UniProtKB/TrEMBL annotation:
The organism's taxonomic lineage, starting at the top: Bacteria, Bacillati, Actinomycetota, Actinomycetes, Micrococcales
Origin species: Luteimicrobium xylanilyticum
Bias-annotated ranges (Polar residues): 1-17
A GO molecular-function descriptor: DNA-binding transcription factor activity
Region entry Disordered, spans: 1-31, 359-384
HTH lacI-type domain: residues covered: 29-82
Entry keyword set: DNA-binding, Transcription, Transcription regulation
SUPFAM superfamilies on file: lambda repressor-like DNA-binding domains (SSF47413), Periplasmic binding protein-like I (SSF53822)
Residues of the signal peptide: none
Name listed for the protein in its UniProt record: Sucrose operon repressor
Xref: InterPro entries: DUF6807 (IPR029475), HTH_LacI (IPR000843), Lambda_DNA-bd_dom_sf (IPR010982), Peripla_BP/Lac1_sug-bd_dom (IPR001761), Peripla_BP_I (IPR028082)
Length: 671
């Protein structure tokens, strides 16, 4: 028959293609029509439409009848049958904020591609509304995304427990396995402050965001880390908010501080500040430099165009949907997979970058650029924060005792920040993906059941689990500078079990030298750990064969734009992971400039190496087999690092830098 029905013979009603079938199709065929046309029951049609197992011949008859009738299953009926709504919920604090709008756009795009709708709930920056919004939204959807929740950790943990499956955006739960997608706001803040320091600013204000905002707390942490890193600088935090009006209202408070630079909580706050400063006749950046956060679309069109930290807003939403869809499509959770060498993090960290525009410039009183000169010898000195290593007055490292670290991070002394002579920062401490990693430190994952590493531990049959087994390394009397050599710092460290029982007594020596020609500087870390009783040191590769070993002297590097690694066994992380090469060379690019770090180990331990999604390296203790020590027996560990400005090839490392390592600290450094 033709499409207009003007010719052709009538067919039997049972086929659904005669006059009665055409009328039903035009009005909307029902499941009963399909069942009659296919000569099957309604239940069989339902099973076929929902993808359940049905005899192939019957299934084909049903599908053919449905196609002929142009049958469209009821979305509501299908949802009831499957126990799903085919929708996900998104709870956000403020829909007027372009940052959250872009995150929502990323979630919605991913959901739409998979046939899911999106239900949105806004809490208007009121934490007391969040728990109810989460409950009511989750009752209407299959899963939930919580964007930047403002509730406390305890409240969030309770909400998450009753809300699975769920993904967090711009928020993490400490040591939790709840999937999260975020950026490292502390690291981003540090980068913003670092930019202002290079412009000569020595007085910086942070216009703080909502008190309940987790990302605001992260920014504050980065601000405080920068304060500890840069000497002679005034850092001032001023309560503000998250809106244009908040930034506008804060202008007078900023002017009263006499600061020459401001970092705003977000771009909206920065816009308000710029507007009011203009009204008050304060020139930007001639008198005050301003940095924003998020890089929303309007940042390019402000007056002046705004220097800001670019946050991958849409990608946050896209990644959040991916993590959520993994849970929806895998009922009952995931099976344990072969993981990488470090304890798996539930947090995906996306990269930020600083976008330089016209709202930042040199400090009004900034002097002429520093002339290039020989950095001179290294020297440790004490200040109000701790011990800092300088070369020609330039800070290149800080030794932190770690007393303020959380117990589950296995508190320990560490080096952070470590810098090249060029100023490039080479360490990251307390990163959002693995908060128990701190710069360059010494940690052991298992000493007779005590973790001196921090974070979660892999437990057979349970997966990654946070145990109450974390020890701590305590500086006995505080580090001291060698009176005969100011480039040497000494410390005596007691390693204590969770109950306070002594495990190791360590003698630690950090020696440093500048290299000839001002090409870089060298650091020598030597530790002798004397067992206080019979002990066994184990690594994660023992109970978990699919994981690489780690533990020992471990360097967590700062985020890089590009990085490669080489050893005597080849180039690339795959060739270097597990290598017993005596040396390792990492070439790292940040802010367009290269730094090469050459690590030379004392023994022939296997190297732990990672270049993605972050950069870390160190010779691992007890990778292949446990190390057993008798009481009073020492475990000697040592690492020499050459921190070189520029990019140096593996051939140059072998021909020039390894011999130099031996000359600088003695033959033992190049064994």
């Amino acid at each position: 028959m033709t499409n207009d029905g003007s010719s052709g013979s009538a067919e039997s009603p049972t086929t659904g293609t005669g006059r009665r079938g055409r009328e039903q199709s035009a009005a909307g065929a029902t499941i009963s029509d399909v069942a009659a046309a296919a000569s099957v029951s309604r239940a069989t049609v339902s099973r076929v439409m929902n993808g359940r197992k049905v005899d192939p011949e019957l299934a084909e008859r049903v599908r053919q009848a449905a196609a002929e009738l142009d049958y469209r299953p009821s979305a509501m009926a299908r949802s009831l049958s499957l126990g799903r709504t085919q929708a996900v919920g998104v709870v956000v604090p403020d829909l007027t904020n372009p940052m959250f709008q872009e995150v929502l756009r990323g979630i919605a795009a991913g959901a739409d591609a998979e046939g899911y709708g999106v239900v949105v709930a806004e809490t208007a920056e009121r934490p007391e509304r969040e728990a109810r919004a989460v409950r009511t939204t989750r009752s209407r959807v299959d899963a939930l995304v919580m964007v930047a929740p403002r509730m406390t950790d305890d409240e969030l943990a309770a909400a998450v427990a009753a809300t699975q499956p769920v993904v967090l955006v711009n928020r993490t739960l400490p040591e939790s396995s709840v999937p999260a997608v975020s950026v490292d706001y502390a690291e981003a803040m540090y980068e913003a402050v670092e930019h202002l320091m290079t412009l000569g600013h020595r007085s910086v204000v942070y216009l703080a965001g909502p008190a309940a905002s987790s990302s605001n707390a992260e920014r504050l942490a980065g601000f405080e880390t920068a304060q500890a890193s840069f000497g002679g600088v005034s850092f001032i935090s001023v309560p503000c908010g998250a809106t244009i009006a908040d930034g506008y209202a804060a202008a007078e408070a900023v002017i009263a501080t006499r600061a020459t630079a401001v970092v705003a909580y977000n771009d909206l706050v920065a816009f308000g500040l710029l507007g009011r400063l203009s009204e008050l006749g304060v020139a930007v950046p001639a008198e005050v430099s301003v940095v924003g956060f998020d890089d929303i679309d309007l940042a390019h069109f402000s007056t002046p165009p705004l220097t800001t930290v670019a946050v991958p807003r849409t990608q946050l939403g896209e990644r959040a949907w991916k993590r959520l869809h993994e849970q929806i499509s895998t009922p009952g959770g995931h099976s344990d997979e072969a993981g990488p060498a470090l304890p798996e993090s539930s947090t995906d960290l996306l990269r930020t970058h600083l976008v330089l525009r016209e709202s930042t410039g040199p400090a009004p009183d900034a002097g002429a650029a520093r002339e290039e000169r020989d950095p001179g010898p290294t020297a440790w000195r004490s200040d109000v924060v701790g011990n800092v290593l300088t070369a020609g007055g330039v800070r290149i490292a800080r030794y932190v005792t770690g007393e303020t670290m959380r117990p589950e991070h296995s508190p320990r002394p560490y080096l952070h920040p470590v810098r090249a002579l060029s100023g490039a920062r080479l360490t990251s401490a307390h990163p959002a993906d693995r908060r128990h990693l701190h710069g360059l430190s010494l940690g052991l994952p298992d000493v007779d059941g005590t973790s001196f590493w921090g974070g979660r531990t892999w437990v057979p049959g349970e997966g990654m689990t946070l145990l109450a087994n974390h020890g701590r390394e305590v500086s006995r009397r505080g580090p001291t500078v060698d009176p005969a050599d100011p480039g040497v710092l000494r410390d005596e460290v007691d390693w204590l079990a969770p109950d306070g029982a002594p495990v190791f007594a360590e003698r630690r020596v950090l020696a440093s030298r500048t290299l000839p020609g001002a090409v870089g500087w060298a650091l020598r870390w030597s530790s002798s750990l004397v067992a206080q009783r019979d002990l066994t040191v184990s690594g994660p590769a023992r109970p978990r064969p699919d994981a690489a070993g780690f533990g020992g002297l471990f360097w967590r590097f700062a985020p890089v734009e590009e990085g490669t690694v080489a050893s005597a066994d080849g180039v690339g992380a795959r060739a270097c992971l597990g290598s017993r090469s005596p040396w390792l060379a990492l070439t790292l690019r940040t802010a367009g400039s290269w730094t090469t770090v050459v690590l030379v180990q004392d023994g022939r331990e296997r190297w732990f190496v990672r270049t993605q999604p972050y950069v870390a390296a160190g010779p691992a203790v007890a990778w292949d087999a446990p190390v057993r020590l008798a009481a009073r027996e020492p475990l000697d560990l040592g690492l020499t690092a050459l921190v070189l400005d520029g990019l140096h090839t593996p051939a140059a490392v072998v021909e020039r830098w390894l011999p130099l390592a031996a000359e600088t600290f003695g033959a033992e450094a190049a064994r």
